[in-house]
Each structure stands twice: as structure tokens, then as C-alpha cells.
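We treat protein structure as text, and this decision shapes the records that our systems exchange. The remainder of this section carries one protein's record, kept here as part of the documentation:
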Amino acid sequence: MRPIRVALLGFGTVGSSVYEIIQSHQQKLKQLTGRNIEVAGILVKDEQKRRDVADQVVITSDYQQILNIPDLDVIIEAIVGVEPGYTCLTEAIEKGLHVITANKEMLAHKGNELRDAARRHNVSLKCEASVGGGIPLIGTLTQLLQVNTMTKIEAILNGTSNYILTDILTNQTGFEQSLKAAQELGYAEADPANDVDGYDAFYKLMVLSDLLFKKQPAWNQVAVKGIRETGLKEILAADQAGLKIKHLALLETSDGGAWTSVEPVALTDSHPLYSVDGVDNAVNLNGDLVGEVKLQGPGAGAYPTASAILEDLIQIYQHKEDNIQNDAVEFKSRDKQRAEQWFVLSQQSSLAGKNVSSNWKFEGDIDGWYGYQLSATEEQIEVLKETYPETKAYRLAGLPTQSATPALVSI
């Protein structure tokens, strides 16, 4: 089988760690997906800067060059801000590529638009790394707690702020000194505003709200306060009272409304998040059936985030032994006779001697298109694509494996 070909948007701390893990864990990744994983391209700001990557990797500052890489399967976005990430991922989805992102700010602003686009184009949008770092939070909420109705979320969602608050208490330092320590350890950016002013945690809370409730509270009604004004004096006073100050994100539903806030809160030692220190993130969930669930893990650092990104990649391609499925081949035409001719020829000539299982056809009740979908192996799909460029390949579960060009051909 040909390798899974991915492109990285951004090659900073997270992007370079994703590349490193792909190179060093190739055997493990192949065991999990059944295929090699190959980084085919990297989008960067400065093409002249030397990077320790394989010679065949396309290094470019032109996103269109990334999209034009042959047989590209997945875009992994590891840049910051709403743009250019939103535009890049929208174009990738429209081209039939899976997308994986760690960009919580973009998802908070444009997550619903991207999810709708992914559904329309039959591709996966994965975002485990956007909330909680190395905690498998989104997967837990969307796959393991689907029957539950979540009534309350209390969370420490920013590892940088949690590290600073812990360091101030542990080492009796001031805010600026602890912030500098966080920057030296790689936990805080040179411009730490999003972290220490509460916006990073706020964006993550909005992503969780979208996933759990399919909507967000009005942003101007959410109290957002960072930790800049939480210094040694305040933290020691809380400690002497048996309390610990944590930067807490809250989302609680009640009587059709929601209580939301992102702010420093003094917790008692009986609170589930009281003991969460250092760069850890933690989420305390209340479900109507499961009750109280706490998830905790590293929330800052390159490897936890890169790990979550690669878990998303594996989820897209992994075949479970008890659920191995063939792929499907789709042909569309506005000419009904042409569509029927393709179906007959695909069985009688290109796949002579091959076993092609059941098919279904769709007629011109949707935008005037006619077509057929067949169940076939990957080898059979390659034969069809060579003979009939109009074909498009999908997994039957709804995840595309590879799209011919163009996706829809008007004949």
C-alpha cells in the first residue's frame, strides 16, 4: 500500500515535534494504521531557514504548493490565530483532504463552519490537541460519554497559568519571575498574553461548549479574567486560609441557561481540582448518568500536543480487526447513460476476475447527478482510477481515502 501522505502547516515547537515522532515511531504507526506515514510537505514563513528534514519534503511558504502535492491525504495545522488557519483548512477540506488542528482560537471562532464543511465533503476534522494537551478529553466526550447529558464542566485548561500559580506558591516568587521561568522551560510563549490573560482557556471552553451543547454562550456575557493580578500576596493569603488559587473555567447549565466564567478561584482541599499542580490540565465533568468524572494530564509542552495530533491521525486510518471494511468507489455524471455505461464496464472489463460486491445508485433527484457506488478493495480502486479518472474513493464508514481529480466531473 502507498503511504499516508501528510503536510504540516507550521514547523514550530508543535509541528517539529509531530515530524520527529512520525520519524521515530514509524514502525508503531504502521502497526496501528497498516501503512507508512510520510511527511510530504511543510508550510513555513521562512523558506531559507535550515530545517532537519528529509530532502524530498516540500518546504514552502506558498500554501498552494502544499495543496498541489501529489496524493496528499491529510493536513495537520499547527499555527496560531484564526487566519490563515481557517482559510487553509477550508481549502483543504474542499479538496477532499482530512484535517487535524490544535488551533483552539480558530475552532472557537470557526469550528462550526469547519465541521459543516467537513460533513459536506465527507472528510474528517479532528481537534483532540486543541483542548487539554495530552488529555484524551475530546475523544472521551464525543465517543465514550455520548449517552450522558453534561450539566457542569469545571476545568483547568491552561498549563502555563497553572504552572505559574504553582511556582509562585512553591518558590515564594512574584508573578513576573514565575512567568520568566515558564518561558525558559518552554511552557509560555514570548508573548504570553493569551495564556496569562485567560483567552486561551476561554477559547478552549467555547470549543467544549460547541462539542457538548452544539452552541456557545454569548462571548460578551462570559466573565474572563487572567492571573496577572494574582501575585504572591494573594496566593499566600489563600494558602494560610487552607485554600489554593486555580485559574478555573466553568460552564454549567441550569433551567435552559448557562453559567460561564474564566477566572482565578480559591478552592478548598475537597475540590477535585485542588491538587492539580504544575503544567497539568484537568477537567471535572458532571453527567446525568455517569456522575462526576475527572480527567487530568499534561496541558503544556510540545510532546503532549504532538501526541494528541498523532492519535487523531491514527483514529482516521485505523482499521479494527472486527470491523475491516472495503472501500467504496463513486462515479457521478449528469448523463444517466454515461453513468450506467461506467458501471457495466467497471464490472466487466477493469475488474475482470475481481470480486466487486453490492452497489447502489443515486439518480438525478439531487442537483441532477446520476451515479453508482461500489464496494471494492484498495487495489481495485487503483485499477478503476487509472481507467476512469471520474471515480472518487471513500471508506464505507464515510471517511475518504483518496480522491481522484476532480471530485465531481461534469460531462
Summary: The longest helix spans residues 104-120. The first strand starts at residue 4 and ends at 9. The domain at 4-133+308-318 is CATH 3.40.50.720 (Rossmann fold).
